[in-house]
Amino acid sequence: MKSTSTPRGKGPAKARRKTREEINLEARDRKRQKKHRGLAAGSRAAGSDGASGGGNQNKHKDPRIGSKTPIALGVTEKVTKQHKPKSEKPMLSPQAELDLLETDERLDALLERLEAGEALSAEDQAWVDAKLDRIDELMQKLGLSYDDDEDIDEEDEKQEDMMRLLKGGN
Asked: Whole-model pTM?
């Protein structure tokens, strides 16, 4: 008669066993999927944009690495020179600077305004004073004075007077 097992239609169906070929096929599929999970192997694969690998090296190179300048490792006796700030004007001889100051158009215009009795602004007055002080310094360096021209004229007149006296006593 019939066995006392569960009827086929009412209970859970028996799972069919897979054959060895099916198991092997599924294993190969899993292995293939695992293989493609990571990044491509090797460092050359990352920069394969250009045709030749040598041309792209300069673009990615870090400029901070590999300086060729020598560096002193120990204490050296050599003292580094401190740079003097360069002056705005080139160094001129005192005579050349004096000539420039005497022919300065702005200074002449401001001095004419002062002689005419006009009042100058504080900046202009300070500038004129500074230039006149510089002219005085340069004239002292060169051994000149304001009265040199007049002294020469007076000396010439004295010599002429002496010549007249010596010649005939007019």
From this structure: 0.36
Backbone angles phi, psi at 19, to 5 degrees: -80, 170
Structure token pair of residue 13? 């169906």
Nearest in space to 90 (alpha carbons), one of 81, 100, 102: 100
Residues 137, 98: contact at Cβ < 8 Å? no
The two tokens of residue 39 are: 């990044």
| Tally of CB atoms within 10 A around 103 | 9
Query: Which residue type does 21 have?
Result: E
- Across the chain, what does the average pLDDT equal? 75
Residue with tokens 């305004």, as numbered in its chain? 113
Dihedral sign from CA coordinates of 143, 149, 153, 156: positive
Positive/negative CA dihedral, 93, 97, 102, 103: positive
Q: What pLDDT is stored for residue 32 in this prediction?
A: 86
* Residue 135: Cβ within 10 Å count: 18
Average pLDDT over residues 117-129: 89
